[in-house]
Specification:
Largest sheet: none
Subcellular location: Membrane
Oligomer: single chain
Strand content: under 5%
Main location: membrane
InterPro entries: Oligpept_transpt, OPT
Radius of gyration: 26 Å
Protein name: OPT oligopeptide transporter
Number of strands: 0
Structural class: mainly alpha
GO molecular function, one term: oligopeptide transmembrane transporter activity
Number of helices: 32
Length: 698
């Protein structure tokens, strides 16, 4: 059909055709990419992202400059400096009361990224670059230097579970490991996960389907900060505007007006008259209620649901899970299942038969093993019904995850592990980012295998440095193998959906049967059954970050190794200093405004409940449901539901151009701004550096 000249359709086609015709000429001449010639918010000729993993190739650029320097003075200086800073600060946070109320008050990767950018660009601007100075300043601060620094610092800031377990053994069992042994044990537990991660690259790093949704915003920010062109100039300006906006807003709900962190209109109307209303709709305080229909204006709470980055399918599944959770927890309590109404609605504590806190020391011998006669006198501990149901769901979710991957991802598993392809490194993988990485020397699989075997040997050796082995060698091998299998399945889920499943409770239940009556050994199992899988997932994500930013694989290997070494040393050094100077406070269940041992106390409670009493609890005449435990998570902030649908449905399908250019950048800006202000508030007024400063009553 002929259309009149000047019609909107012809104009649209003309715009697209003329734009595309510029690709070969203008892009080569000016270096400006085609999409930068289009208006930022125009949806002309922009394809809607249909498959979740397509964001990896449609949002993230495959651009690469192999001539950029990586191992520079800036990389080493800022990488080591920020690694020390991150490791020390993360360890301090572990022993702070703010860690329970503000789980995001930690040294996050985005926080490290922003600090590294400010310092790196400042060094590039102020250090001379002529003559011998060029060794200190080889030119503009580039994306590969930046990525290496971020990987190193974030690896160091990931507080090792081994450190927390070693602290718990010191505090509650008066067993102190030699400093060298402790540091090697921390390092070995992390490197076991690193060795696994490297050997799983063919399956969980190289392919497009392994796109790690929560990392898209990190990569998008890195590329926006470092790539040139008019579009990225606008992206940088947009990022800093959103960053500043959330920075100045977030302090309001966090400090002067905390009611805004979790608002329940129904609770406000009820005004505290009904316990039922508070249990079902309360959400303002820890363990107040399950937060039905509550909403928040604090991004630090909203972002726990990852509404801007999780694929819509992941979010819908999580909403369904929340709905089931509301029903199950409320029903269990109000039907008085297992005497639930004799106890409080929500708590993670151990309770005695009288409803008071359970005295776990009253059932142990001086050697910290179970005394059956004392147990008969004191009785078994009790848990709240919500605690029990939540634990049951966690354990069931682990089994479901394993079955799901075996049923739906068998093709990928076979492709990765079939024949000898596992040791070849995945040359047949068709991924745009991976193909760009083929120009760089790869890390051989045997390097990672060597790291794994050496770490396993070191871990076994460290366990035999006490009069009685902390954990027998065969058990270390058993739980390491189990963790490897679990890491494959959970890695699939994290890589494709962004969702992570906790496994420590299921691992400790299993350990209770393998090592009955031995609380220290059951606690130590966390290093191999839990920490190894956790570290594997963390290392896999950093390997993918290196692939996305085209950081040479051996530079990524070196950055992760250096971060782990620095983190191990300063994790232990800071931990032992805090434990020595604050032992009585850390043993106190309440703690102070400055220090709290609640994290290491959880390991101790679990070691007693499952290590000393595991067999009695899980094989007693009472149903297992009343004897399981897990921290019942706050079941959701409804703000993330609205934001999730607005982002991953409306914007992705109706505003694809904006979605590709700004959605993930918005997430990075909101996360970064809120984390920086929360970091400042933690030390300025929340007591992380001393006494807390309360906001005046108004």
């Amino acid at each position: 059909m002929d259309l009149p000249e000047g019609s909107p359709v012809l104009k649209r086609e003309s715009t697209v055709t003329s734009t595309v015709s510029l690709e070969k000429h203008d892009e080569e001449k000016t270096g400006v990419r085609v999409e930068e010639l289009l208006d930022d918010t125009s949806d002309i000729a922009v394809e809607v992202i249909k498959k979740a993993e397509d964001v990896a190739v449609q949002v993230i650029s495959t651009e690469d400059d192999p001539t950029l320097p990586v191992l520079t003075f800036r990389t080493i200086f800022l990488g080591v400096g920020l690694s020390i800073f991150s490791a020390v600060l993360a360890t301090i946070y572990t022993f702070k009361p703010q860690a329970s109320s503000f789980p995001n008050a930690s040294v996050s990767q985005l926080f490290c990224l922003i600090i590294a950018y400010v310092l790196g660009t400042s060094m590039a601007a102020f250090i001379p670059s002529h003559g011998y100075w060029r060794y200190l300043n080889p030119g503009p601060f580039n994306i590969k230097e930046h990525t290496a620094i971020v990987i190193m610092a974030s690896t160091a800031s990931s507080v090792a579970i081994a450190m927390e377990v070693i602290a718990a053994i010191d505090l509650f069992y008066n067993t102190r490991l030699n400093a060298g042994v402790a540091i090697f044990q921390i390092f070995a537990s992390q490197m076991l996960g690193y060795g696994m991660a490297g050997m799983l690259r063919t399956l969980l790093v190289y392919p497009t389907y392994a796109f790690y949704p929560t990392y898209i915003s990190v990569v998008n920010l890195l590329q926006s900060l470092h790539f040139g062109g008019a579009l990225n100039h606008k992206r940088r300006r947009y990022f800093w505007i959103v960053f500043a906006a959330i920075f100045f807003w977030e302090w309001i709900p966090q400090y002067p007006f905390p009611l805004l962190t979790a608002i329940s209109v129904i609770c406000l109307i009820d005004n505290g008259r009904s316990t039922f209303v508070r249990n079902l709709f309360g959400a303002g305080s820890s363990n107040e209620g399950i937060g039905l229909l509550s909403f928040s204006t604090s991004w630090t709470l909203i972002t726990q649901g990852n509404p801007l980055v999780w694929p819509l399918q992941t979010q819908i599944n999580s909403y369904i899970g929340m709905g089931i959770g509301y029903f199950a927890l409320t029903l269990a309590y109000y039907r008085n299942s297992f005497g639930a109404r004799d106890l409080v609605f929500m708590s993670t504590s151990l309770f005695g038969l009288d409803g008071n806190t359970y005295d776990q020391s009253a059932i142990l011998t001086p050697e910290n093993t179970l005394d059956p006669q004392k147990l008969q006198q004191v009785g078994l501990p009790r848990y709240t019904a919500t605690y029990a149901v939540s634990q049951l769901c966690y354990n069931l979710s682990l089994g479901a995850a394993l079955v799901h991957v075996l049923l739906w991802n068998w093709k990928e598993l076979k492709a990765a592990f079939g024949g000898f392809r596992f040791f070849k490194g995945g040359q047949e993988i068709d991924d745009k980012h991976y193909q760009q990485m083929r120009k760089y020397a790869e890390v051989p699989q045997w390097w990672y295998l060597a790291v794994f075997l050496i770490s396993l040997a070191v871990g076994i050796g460290c366990s035999y440095t006490t009069p009685e082995p902390l954990m027998p060698w065969w058990s270390i091998i058993l739980f390491t193998a189990l963790s490897a299998v679990i890491a494959v399945c959970l890695g699939f889920i994290t890589a494709t959906t962004g969702f992570q499943i906790s496994i420590k409770y299921a691992i400790q239940v299993l350990a209770a049967f393998i090592h009955p009556g031995k609380p220290i050994t059951v606690m130590y199992v966390n290093l191999y059954g839990n920490s190894t899988a956790f570290q594997t997932l963390a290392m896999l994500q950093d390997l993918k970050l290196g692939q996305y930013t085209k950081l040479p694989p051996r530079a990524t290997f070196a950055a992760q190794l250096a971060g782990s070494i620095i983190g191990s040393i300063f994790n232990y050094t800071m931990m032992i200093t805090i434990v020595n100077n604050n032992r009585e406070v850390l043993l106190d269940p309440v703690g102070t405004r400055v220090w709290s041992g609640w994290i290491v106390q959880q390991y101790n409670s679990a070691s007693v409940a499952m290590g000393a009493l595991g067999k009695e609890l899980f094989t007693s005449a009472d149903p297992v449901l009343a004897r399981t435990s897990v921290l019942p998570t706050k079941l959701g902030d409804k703000s993330c539901v609205v934001i999730g649908f607005a982002s991953q449905w409306w914007a992705r399908s109706r505003r694809p151009a904006w979605f590709k250019k700004y959605n993930y950048l918005t997430s990075a800006a909101l996360d970064g701004g809120s984390q920086v202000i929360l970091f400042i508030l933690s030390f300025a007024v929340f007591g992380a550096s001393g006494d807390a400063v309360a906001f005046p009553n108004w």
